[in-house]
C-alpha cells in the first residue's frame, strides 16, 4: 500500500441512529412549541435569544450524537477487526486473537434481581483467545455494549438489527478474513 492510501475497509455491522432520531423529534417538537408560545406570551427579546441559543446547542449536540451513533460497530481493516463501543474510540484487534462471533442476549434493567427478566435485548458477542491477555477488557460506552472477560458484547439497540442473517454475515466475514490471513493474503 502506498503512502497516503487507506486500508480497504469492510463494514460488518453498522451503527443505529434510530434512538437519536426519536430524541431529535422530541427536541424539535419542544422547540416548535416554545417558538409558538413566544408571540402569545410576549417574552422579552433577551429571553427569546436565550431560548434560540439553547435550541441551537441542542441541535449541535444531537448532530454530534447522531454522527457517533451512525459509525459502524464492526469493521474489517486489513488484518484487524475494528470494534467501536465508545463514541470517541475504536479498538483495532488483530484478527488472529478473534476466535468467533455469536448471538447472545442480555436482560433489560428493572425488576427484582432474582426474578427472570421480562425483556431481553439481542447482542452480538465477539470472543477473543485466552492467550490474548491484553484484549481481556476495555472501557466502553455502556449503552453500546461491554468488554470484559475476553468478550466484547455489542448491544443490539445501538447497531443495525441483529437478525439471523446479520449474525451469519458477520460470522461468514470473520471466517473468510481469517482464511485470507492464514493463506497470507491479508485483507
Q: Could you outline the blueprint of secondary structure elements for this entry?
A:
Elements (H helix, E strand, L loop, with lengths): L8 E5 L4 H24 L3 H26 L3 E4 L2 E7 L2 E6 L3 E10 L12 E9 L16 E4 L2 E5 L8 H19 L5
Antiparallel strand pairs: 1-2, 2-3, 3-4, 5-6, 6-8, 7-8
Helix pairs in contact: 1-2
Keywords:
four-stranded antiparallel sheet, 8 strands, 3 helices, 187 residues, alpha+beta
| Strand order across the largest sheet | 1-2-3-4
The chain-level mean pLDDT equals 87
Give the DSSP E fraction (strand runs of 2 or more residues). Answer: 25-35%
Domains counted in the coordinates: how many?
2
* Shape by Cα distribution: elongated
Q: Unreliable stretches, pLDDT < 50, 5 or more residues?
A: none
Give me the number of helical elements.
3
**Rg from C-alpha positions?**
21 Å
Fraction of helical residues: 25-40%
* Global structural class: alpha+beta
Describe this structure in words.
37% of the residues lie in helices and 27% in strands. The strands form 2 sheets. A 4-stranded antiparallel sheet has the order 1-2-3-4, covered by helices on one side. A 4-stranded antiparallel sheet has the order 5-6-8-7, covered by helices on one side. Helix 1 packs antiparallel against helix 2. It is of the alpha+beta class and 187 residues long. It starts with 8 loop residues before the first strand and ends in a 5-residue tail after the last helix. Strand 7 and strand 8 (151-155) form a beta hairpin. The chain folds into 2 domains: 15-70; 74-182, no CATH class. The protein is built from 3 helices and 8 strands, in the order βααβββββββα. The model has no long low-confidence stretch (mean pLDDT 87).
